[in-house]
Design brief:
CATH superfamily: Glutaredoxin
CATH architecture: 3-Layer(aba) Sandwich
Number of helices: 6
Strand content: 5-15%
Low-confidence stretches: 32-36
Helix content: 55-70%
Largest sheet: 4 strands, mixed
Order of helices and strands: HHHEHEHEEH
Mean pLDDT: 76
Strand order of the largest sheet: 2-1-3-4
Distance between the termini: 100 Å
Shape: globular
Number of strands: 4
Number of domains: 1
CATH topology: Glutaredoxin
Structural class: alpha+beta
Radius of gyration: 26 Å
């Protein structure tokens, strides 16, 4: 007796094989596109890093001119450029954070980008402090130390973001990711300088505040550091 189901089974088996091959191809294409998009994002961040480097060199040179030629008042230009550049840095850092949240897998490329932003934040913080002293700038540079595993750090970040929106360009926040202390020596140096033992910690005018600094207290700290601000009246 001839098995009438044999051709149907053969066709059905072929269909399964074809479907499996197509699925594998789609999966491989998805992985390839993921790598392509990731590399494009890092290329974009690399371009941003180069632009930040040029802006920082310009600011640094302005500051050197200011120190060397005391009769030349470069403070108005320095003040404007510093604030604009720090805003760009903050926007760029937001892109890195968003990318980090979407892509949990770490890579050497990602680590380099993170180290670069830590270094940018530290050197802009130093320049902002010096500019405040030299040019009498009415700003409050704040160092913000945090870790990814710190459960209360997001609360501090929310409070800092709130005051950035309230005070605008007068409040400059420089986040430092302490998870990079093994990879970036400057993080360890900053930790040692301020004896950071608790997270989160903020530093305002070389004064350290450990734990979450709540809104009322932080407003007092900011207003004490500013000469004048409508938000402090």
């Amino acid at each position: 007796m001839v098995n009438q189901d044999l051709p149907w089974r053969k066709i059905s088996k072929d269909k399964y094989i074809i479907a499996g091959v197509i699925t594998l191809l789609i999966f491989s294409l998805g992985i390839s596109l993921g790598f392509i998009f990731e590399n494009q994002r890092y290329a974009l961040l690399g371009d941003i890093n180069q632009e930040q480097e040029v802006k920082y060199l310009s600011l640094q040179l302005q500051y050197l001119y200011l120190n060397y030629f005391s009769s030349y008042n470069n403070c108005p230009t320095l003040t404007t450029t510093l604030k604009e550049t720090i805003k760009d840095l903050s926007d760029s850092l937001s892109e890195v954070i968003a990318f980090e949240e979407q892509n949990k897998v770490s890579s050497s490329q990602h680590q380099v980008v993170q180290r670069r932003y830590v270094l940018d934040n530290l050197r802009y913080w130093l320049l902002a402090k010096e500019s405040k002293q030299k040019c009498d700038m009415n700003i409050v540079p704040i160092l913000y130390f945090y870790t990814q595993e710190c459960s209360s750090c997001p609360n501090q970040g929310t409070v800092l973001s709130y005051f950035k929106s309230v005070f605008g360009e007068q409040v400059l926040v420089f986040p430092i990711n302490l998870d990079l202390r093994q990879e970036e020596p400057m993080v360890e140096i900053a930790i040692s300088q301020f004896n950071i033992t608790k997270y989160p910690t903020i530093v305002v005018d070389n004064t350290k505040y450990e734990g979450v600094v709540k809104e009322d207290q932080l407003k007092e700290i900011i207003c004490a550091s500013l000469k004048q601000s409508p938000e402090c009246s």
